[in-house]
Amino acid sequence: MTKNGDFPVNKYTHFYQQSLNQPEEFWREQSLLIDWKTSPSEILNYQNPPFAKWFAGGTTNLCHNAVDRHLPAQANSPALIFVSTETDVEKVYTFGELSQEVQRMAAILQTLCVNKGDRVLIYMPMIAEAAFAMLACARIGAIHSVVFGGFASHSLATRIDDATPRLIISADAGSRGGKLVPYKPLLDEDISLSHHQPDAVLMVNRGLVAYSAHAERDHDYQGLRQTHIDAKVDCVWVDSTHPSYTLYTSGTTGKPKGVQRDTGGYAVALAASMKHIFNAKAGETYFSTSDIGWVVGHSYIIYGPLMAGMATIMYEGLPIRPDGGIWWKLVEKYKVNIMFSAPTAVRVLKKQDPAFLSKYDLSSLRALYLAGEPLDEPTAQWISSSLGKPIIDNYWQTETGWPVLTVPHGVENLPTKFGSPGVPMYGYNIKLFDENTGEELVEPHQKGVVAIEGPLPPGCMQTVWQDDARFVKTYWTSVPGKQVYSTFDWGIRDEDGYYFILGRTDDVINVAGHRLGTREIEESISSHPNVSEVAVVGVADALKGQVAMGFVIARDTSELQTAASKLSFEGEVMKLVDSQLGAVARPSRIFVVSALPKTRSGKLLRRALQAVCENRDPGDLTT
Fold it and tell me: For residue range 436-483, what is the model confidence (pLDDT) as tens digits?
């Protein structure tokens, strides 16, 4: 690799460099991957940095591109495969049937006075009706905001106040691990806590729990669906820059950030990613184990696979219920070609009987993609050897909407490296900067802040909902002397141009003047043979400023039943870190725990652990 960060010359190098050097020409070509009602008059408008407007003047529709355009050739092909191991329901919707359901939902929305630009908050479990609702919003130009089901009242109330939805769509209950999670009592409390009051609530009754309806506000989905059983609702063509949805991410302050996404740029970015990154083909099957409340669920359960003409599996349940082979059973049954999951889920499966991995026919599966948190090398090695399939890490954020770092198998079959998510994807001008001086770091193996030079490519966030100033201040001002988008992640780049993510810049521990990344300590601890999962946080200390504390889930707890055995294990782990990283990195304590706090998306909540250790309020922890 050269000092300026170029990759060794290969097919992808030319592809990537064109995206940076000739962005308008590059993205004009990619824009042909979707349908436009009106072609864009301008590919990129970057007259007001850091705000980028992609494909301005063009009009399109996400629902049309995900559903309608496939009807002439694929009306009878599978589109949405809904599987719930919680309720033992399994149903396949063809593109034709999906189109009908979405139009029925769209007609219901219109009956409830939802129009273009109105917000619709979707507070639902992983059920097919949630997909219908998202697509129906896109169909009529409404802006959906999906919130994880089962959130505490305060978390949802803050989102209601920020999004000011005209309508909320919910269900009687979700289920997780066989335990029912009633939604209606939570929702009613959320609305009572909110300053903004929605005009209506649409309830999907799954028959799981009884609930009381608010007479004038609440409406029954099943009854209205029957009323609109033959509904025909045309797509509303919207400008490329029209917001398609908002998705909230937790902030360090109490108020979550509403990531606002456009329509045309997002559609082009997803269509291009399905082709260039996932090498997807129409008629194949995609299985993302994520949740629609997370960005992966938006991009790669709903919109991306459907836009590519693929069948997409929407799964409600755990990876180990009814047993640890359920996901592989679905791969065999539906001939899954591409699977997308999270390292956390793989670590859960790692504890299961390895026979499940050989019980089912996985010959259809081309690759397993993992994202959501850093993929540690031991986990990557285990799943790779167990599956005998390519394991492709990829790194991105709610804010970017699609992968920033990975290997683009649709362009070139670049090799993967354990511990690295890969190389920069087309459109992302990624650089490393010194956090104190703002100096660009160009030599291999220099540790810096991973940042992206503007303009951000299509598909990335437009702004923070209703708060342009927060968008600029939060993301574009943290690197001294530079207006670049900060990922707030530490990284290094090797001599081949592969990046390695070392952890959040706000996950740095300062121990007696020594700055230590939590990820580095976690990697060391995870190399202990009896460690399944680990989290390290910095905790305030009167003497040293901070000390590291480790929380470990053991693979086998049978030998850790006594205080003495736990103390011995703690000593082993400390000695291991001492030998690998030095005494300064050795945690002050190692605690054996049964679970670690995480968001529903699988993101580890180190901030919660740190707050508990310091007797503080952890703030908003929902996503």
Answer: 999 999 999 999 999 999 999 999 999 999 999 999 999 999 999 999
DSSP conformation letters of 312-354:
EEEEES-TTSS-TTHHHHHHHHTT-SEEEE-HHHHHHHHTS-T
Reported as type and span, the H/E element at residue 203 is: strand 200-204
Residue ranges in the chain whose pLDDT is less than 70: 1-9, 150-154, 250-255, 506-508, 510, 512-515, 517, 599-602, 618-623
CA separation for the pair 184, 188 (Å, rounded): 6
Look-up of token digits 């990922």: 487
Q: What is the pLDDT of residue 144?
A: 98
Q: Which residues contact 167 (CB under 8 A, 6 or more apart)?
A: 109, 112, 114, 118, 120, 121, 198, 199, 200, 201, 202
Cis geometry, peptide bond prior to residue 457 (ω within 30 degrees of 0) = no
Distance CA 467, CA 475 (A): 12
Q: Are 409 and 279 in contact (CB under 8 A)?
A: yes
Burial of 213 (0-12, 13-18, 19+ CB in 10 A): middle
> pLDDT by residue (tens digit) across 492-508?
999 999 999 987 776 66
> What distance in Å separates the CA atoms of residue 490 and residue 433, rounded to the nearest whole number?
9
Q: Which residues of 259-268 are buried (b: 16+ CB within 10 A; e: fewer)?
A: bbbbbbbbbb
Residues in CB range of 198: below 8 A, 6 or more apart: 121, 160, 165, 166, 167, 168, 191, 217
> In 424-582, which residue ranges form alpha helices assigned H by DSSP?
468-476, 518-526, 563-581
3-state secondary structure (DSSP) of residue 32: helix
Could you tell me if 143 and 183 are in contact, meaning their C-beta atoms sit under 8 angstroms apart? no
Contacts of 572 (CB under 8 A, 6+ apart): 528
pLDDT of 508: 65
Pairing, β 51-56 against β 42-48: antiparallel
Record the tokens describing residue 411, joined without a space.
């362009």
**Burial class for 216, CB neighbours closer than 10 Å (0-12, 13-18, 19+):** exposed
Q: Look up residue 416 and give its two tokens.
A: 């993967």
**Nearby residues of 224 by Cβ (< 8 Å), 6 or more positions away:** 108, 111, 202
List the beta strands (DSSP E) in 345-493: 367-370, 391-393, 405-406, 423-424, 429-433, 448-453, 463-464, 484-493
Eight-state DSSP code of residue 584: G
- Checking 155-158 for CB contacts under 8 A at 24+ apart, the result is 155/256, 155/620, 155/622, 156/123, 156/186, 156/187, 156/190, 157/190, 157/191, 157/193, 157/194, 158/254, 158/255, 158/256, 158/620
pTM for the whole structure:
0.86
